[in-house]
Amino acid sequence: MVHHTISKSSTSAPSASSRIRIMRRALRLFCAAAIVGMLASCAVKQPAPPPPTTYPTESAPPTGDVADSAPLGPALQRPRSRWVPVRWSELPGFEQDAMHEAWNAWVKNCERPGATFARLCSEVRRLTLATPQEQRNWMRARLQPYRVEPLGAPSEGLLTSYFEPFYEASRLPRPGFGAPLYRPPPTLGQRKPWYTRQEMEMLPEARAQLAGQEIAYLADPVDALILQIQGSGRVRVTEPDGSQRLVRLAFAATNDQPYRSPGKWLIDQGLLRGDVTWPGIRNTLAANPGRLSEFLWSNPRMVFFREEPLSALDAQFGPRGAQGVPLTPGRSIAVDPQSIPYGTPVWMASQGPVANLQRLVIAQDTGTAIVGAVRADYFAGWGAEAGDFAGRMKQPLRLWVLWPKP
Question: pTM of the entire structure?
Answer without folding.
Answer: 0.75
